[in-house]
Design brief:
Elements: E1 16-18, E2 21-24, E3 26-27, E4 44-50, E5 73-75, E6 97-102, E7 111-117, H1 132-135, E8 140-144, H2 149-153, H3 157-160, H4 171-186, E9 192-202, H5 204-214, E10 224-228, H6 249-262, H7 268-273, H8 276-281, H9 304-310, E11 318-323, H10 337-348, H11 352-358, H12 364-390, E12 398-403, H13 420-423, H14 437-456, E13 483-487, E14 492-495, H15 499-512
Parallel strand pairs: 2-5, 7-8, 7-9, 9-10, 10-11, 11-12, 12-13
Antiparallel strand pairs: 1-2, 3-4, 4-6, 6-8, 13-14
Length: about 525
């Protein structure tokens, strides 16, 4: 346990002790943030703490190994390097580090914990994932780096042969799972409660979140999950190539073997002898398309449809949703009526004729709007249908949202990822937009729902909203009610779609994906 001086001293004022040794943090904010957050003085941050050993050398393409202990005090005041394949300015195979933001003034507070997994190409040090704003709501916020691309997902018999479980390919997922265990073992020193962990993320990070829910390796370790733009009906064809998709073993092996052959390296030793640049270049093989989590029967034991039918290892409440203008929705789409009709007929099979009646178009403007509206219907119905399947075997509630606010200064609407700085309450850190008063009000309201969910597994309860008035009530999904909760432009329950539209979307899913994920 860490000791602090004074009844209200912030935890960064002296070192705390974790399993690996002593760690010194820093103040997350200075006085200039006082207008944003009345409790800014209490927020501590620790950056770049190793949660596993370096993945270089013999540890490349191995499950994360125990980090070394250190003597003295680790000055945890700088973000660690990003993992290769990330967008970080500085990358290294010694990248498995964790960052913690805490509002605790005592290690005994047992505050709820929120673990955040970033999207593909991201890194934990990105301003979009700053955790100080969420910490002001009374939540210990954790983010971290994990392996992606070929270093995270390469699947080869030569690597499986040296593994105790005889599996390969899910190194990035094993990093994510290792992080959950690290938090469980160490978060009490930061004022967090190891028995109140919510996993969360957006896009590929939402996939990490859902894999955590479905993995037996985390059974009993988490209390809830937040998946932003990442969970859909297993029959929805857009799930392929989505942040939460995975590859079956035969496909992953074939792809990885072709990749290894392109590098003239087939043995584990030859692969580990390659430089990081050689691994990432991959003789022209994309490091993102194709390298994904793999259905290995270990970290990912079953297809999504099987987990939904049999029950997930973690029956926990889930907050899940999507954005109005993602998944190929384009506000600048140009489409003639004939092109629109041809596209719908080609894509939607037996549902096409009825969809054209529900979404008619007499001119090019209407054609573009109708095309986008069909895609938006898929977004809403797919997540709703996932929730419907979840309730067939699980007792925990699901809260579905539909984000509609368009951030200022752009013409892509409520685009993929646009909700993240609002949900995490960190507009102050994202300086690429000229935020308006309305944006800050939206961020406070949205992040209050998220923080409430982390605290109580219910977005309506937890006392996180401090502005005038109260949060509009957000009902849990009920299979018999075809609704979702709109956030952003308005805050209210809206229909997912008419019964006819829902039936058409499900008909399309079954037609397009006879073998579901």
């Amino acid at each position: 346990m860490a000791a602090v001086t004074g009844a209200h001293a912030a935890l960064y004022e002296q070192p705390i002790t974790i399993a690996q040794g002593k760690v010194q943090g820093a103040a997350a904010f200075n006085a200039s943030y006082g207008s944003f957050f009345p409790n800014w003085k209490d927020i501590s941050v620790w950056k770049g703490i190793p949660y596993a050993a370096s993945t270089a050398g013999e540890n490349r393409w191995r499950p994360p190994q125990d980090p070394a202990a250190w003597n003295g005090t680790l000055q945890a005041t700088e973000f660690g390097p990003g993992c290769p394949s990330s967008s970080a300015a500085t990358t290294s195979e010694d990248c498995l580090s964790v960052n913690v933001w805490s509002p605790a003034t005592s290690a005994d507070e047992k505050l709820p914990v929120m673990i955040w997994s970033y999207a593909a190409g991201g890194t934990s040090g990105m301003s979009t994932y700053d955790g100080g704003g969420m910490a002001t709501h009374g939540v210990v916020f954790v983010n971290y780096n994990y392996r992606t691309g070929p270093l995270g997902w390469l699947t080869l018999p030569a690597l499986a042969a040296e593994d105790a479980k005889n599996v390969s390919g899910n190194y990035g997922l094993l990093d994510q799972i290792r992080l959950v265990h690290w938090v469980r073992d160490n978060i009490a020193a930061f004022g967090g409660d190891p028995d109140r962990i919510t996993v969360s993320g957006q896009s590929f990070g939402a996939g990490a979140t859902y894999h955590t829910v479905n993995s037996p390796l985390t059974k009993g370790l988490i209390k809830g999950a937040i998946a932003e733009s990442g969970i859909k009906d297993p029959y929805d064809p857009s799930l392929w190539g989505y942040g939460s998709d995975y590859r079956n073993m035969s496909w992953a092996l074939s792809f990885s073997e072709t990749y290894a052959e392109s590098l003239n390296a087939t043995t584990a030793a030859e692969l580990r002898a390659l430089s990081v640049d050689e691994v990432l270049e991959g003789a022209g093989v994309s490091t993102f398309v194709g390298f994904d989590p793999v259905l290995d029967g270990y970290a990912i034991p079953n297809k999504y449809i099987v987990s939904l039918e049999d029950g997930a290892p973690n029956d926990v409440p889930i907050l899940v949703g999507n954005n109005a203008d993602e998944d190929d929705v384009s506000l600048t789409l140009s489409l003639t009526v004939d092109e629109y009709i041809a596209e719908v007929n080609e894509t939607y099979g037996p549902a096409a004729a009825a969809l054209l009646e529900l979404f008619p178009a007499a001119n090019a403007t209407q054609a573009a709007d109708a095309y986008n509206d069909i895609l938006r219907a898929i977004i809403r119905v797919s997540t709703w249908s996932f929730a419907r399947r979840w309730h067939q075997t699980e007792s925990s509630p699901i809260y579905q949202y539909y984000w509609t606010h368009a951030p200022p200064g752009q013409d892509s609407g409520a685009f993929h990822g646009s909700e993240v700085p609002y949900a995490l309450n960190n507009l102050y850190a994202v300086t690429t937009s000229d935020w308006e008063a309305d944006d800050y009000a939206i961020a406070h309201r949205m992040s209050a729902y998220w923080a409430n969910f982390v605290k109580t597994q219910n977005p309506n309860e937890g006392g996180s909203y401090k502005n005038n008035g109260s949060l509009p009530y957000w009902p849990a999904n009920v299979p018999a009610n075809n609704v979702t909760f709109e956030v952003g432009k308005v805050w209210e329950t809206i229909p997912v779609g008419s019964p006819e539209l829902i039936d058409l979307m499900l008909e399309y899913f079954y037609y397009a994906t006879p073998d579901p994920m």
